Structure formats: C-alpha cells, structure tokens
Fold:
Amino acid sequence: MGKTAVIIGAGPAGLTAALELLRQTDVKPMVLEESSFVGGISRTVNNNGDRMDIGGHRFFSKNREVMDWWGQMMPLQGSPALDDILLSRQKDYSAAGPDPEKEDRVMLVRDRVSRILFLRHFFDYPISLKWSTFAGLGLGNTLKAGFGYFKAMIHKLPETSLENFYVNKF
Structure:
C-alpha cells in the first residue's frame, strides 16, 4: 500500500505541497477543501466580467527559488491591466508575460502598501518616521511608543513562548 498525505486546505500552501509531493516523492496527496473552489482567500473571482480579489493578499518573497516556482505557475503580468491604464500607473512588466485583460492565468504586479488603522488614523506599516505619523499619534502617544520601543530594545524577554518571541521581534 502506498503512502498518502492528507493536506487540509486548497489554498496556495496546500496546493503547492500537493504538487511538490507528486513531483518529488511517491507520496500521494489527498487535498481536503471545505468549499467548492481552490485558492482559499488568494483567489480572484470573475463576476460578470469584473474581477474581485477575495481577501487581502499579495505574494512576495526574497527567495529567488520560491519566486521562480510561482512564476511557472502564474506568469508575471506582461502589460498593463485596465486599472493601470485608467490610473496611469507605470510599472515594470515581464517582457514575455501575458496580458491580464486577455488571460486569467497571470500574477498581477501591484504596489505593496500596508497600513494600520489606529486611533481612527491610517499609519504606514512598517511605521515610518514622518510628520503624518507624529501628527496622527499626538505627542503623548508618540512619547509612549518611543519609550516603549527603547525599553523593548534594552530589555528582551526570555523566548520561552511564542508571545515573547513576537514581542521581542516586533
């Protein structure tokens, strides 16, 4: 009897694990997915010609091997999408990449913007030392955050729990 791996979830991680098991081992993956579609929250739904991303997601890795692997699965965008055209966004597109207005199997090039909502203000993430950050926080919160940061840099917690690890790192 052959080996079987049970993989829970047909999102990017589950599908990647299943494919690599098929490619590199004699283990047969069984992917269990609660819903009737694959991709998890990292999928794009086409509703009457309008594409909508389900969940906030983007893909980024500093590991070239990981980026190359995903480039084989989802070729990088080769020309502007409609929103790029309408908003006059200039980007570096892949010379041989597909046109996202004609192809569905394409990884879109998007700016990486992350923000935190705190005290009814949006702040850049990672936090940047700009006037808007100080203005949004106010003097008291800026001082409190600054002293808290310096205290955390000097006094590290023993990494005996996941919570302490996160406190030390972030």
